[in-house]
Input
Amino acid sequence: MARAAGEIEALIALMARLPGLGPRSARRAVLHMLKKRGMVMEPLSQALARVAQTARDCRVCGNISDEEICPICADEKRATGTLCVVEDVSDLWALERAGGFKGRYHVLGGTLSALESIGPENLRIPQLVERIKAENLREVILALNATVEGQTTAHYIAETLAPTGVSVSALARGLPMGGELDYLDDGTIAAAMAARRAL
Amino acid sequence: MDWAGDGILLAARPHGENGAIIEVFTAAQGLHKGVVRGGTGRKLAPILQPGNTLAVNWRARLDDHLGHFTVEPLRARASAIMGDAERLSALNALCALAIFALPERDPHPRLHALTLHLLDRLAEGDPWFGPYLLWERLLLEETGYGLDFSECAVTGQIEGLAYVSPRTGRAVTREGAGEYADRLLPLPRLLLDASAPESRGEMAKGLVTTGHFLREVLAPALGHKPLPEARARLVKRFD
Output
């Protein structure tokens, strides 16, 4: 197979490291950009350069934004007294897409993991405790993954926050939208049964 | 090379974009690693949770390759354990200690059977302190550092065992301990007999004793690796 010139090949190799892209799809994407240099490639390269310069972690919640304080933390309407704790920025963005939460967030930056040697000191838990004191919060919602590591972290945070007196809740576990019982794993069905509610 | 069997999932780490490297504990193969394609995907991620039992099929071109697993769920326990902080701590400690202590591809059928029993107790809400202490005792025994509670190391008596020698791992009676009692480790009834009535105090004492041998005897033999943090978090719950 004919290979592209050095710089283009280097670009393809970089693109292939992105999630969702492999060497073939990276090659297709680069070829598409090369064919539409003015329409796609130049605006994209300028946007990348701008974001690389301006993107930073929000100093309050850990969200990624182009300001020192992200728009969610800066918005006074979102000071509802409720804080949603998430593992990663991608989870924060997922909750924002869903639109069901109107309070503020706190990004932990991971979960406790014995295998990866991630302890409480490696997560943004001390900052969370500080925020609870400083922002006079009433409720903390632990929106952590329904995995062993996610729930270990949730229990740890709940116990750490107990002395503060703040109300701590967690997301429900059970049937996904459109989920058919026959196709669900046993653990999800058992969790849904345990969390059943009166109609 | 290939084999099939039932394995307890101890750990799953992301590998590549949507794969996972899992560690399973089987009766015939012991601790065994391999790659699961799509292991972090929507279909397999709920299944690949520590504590679950899977039907696994391992395949590799050569025996010393990492190889690939195909997996099917057999028994889901993680979701039942996740809601209880203390049982979840025990599950984490068990998985972390097994990975810490067991050599790869070395069968330990007795420990495997006890692990299944303990996990079932954790998942079903049954008393688990005694089986957990017994599990740590058996882990020490299977790795070559068994504790001997058959008789008093000093008097030879088989009744009234109350302490454990931190040096030899042998039981000692109150009379045999004499003035050295404060230098010995506690031997709670729950550590002698896993079916004895359980209490948090007995569990705490048992964890002190097994912890001593895990930390002072087993860990140095494994290159002075620190004991997993997950066990320390379990112990803290009983302080």
In short: The mean pLDDT of chain A is 92. Chain A is about 45% helix and 10% strand.
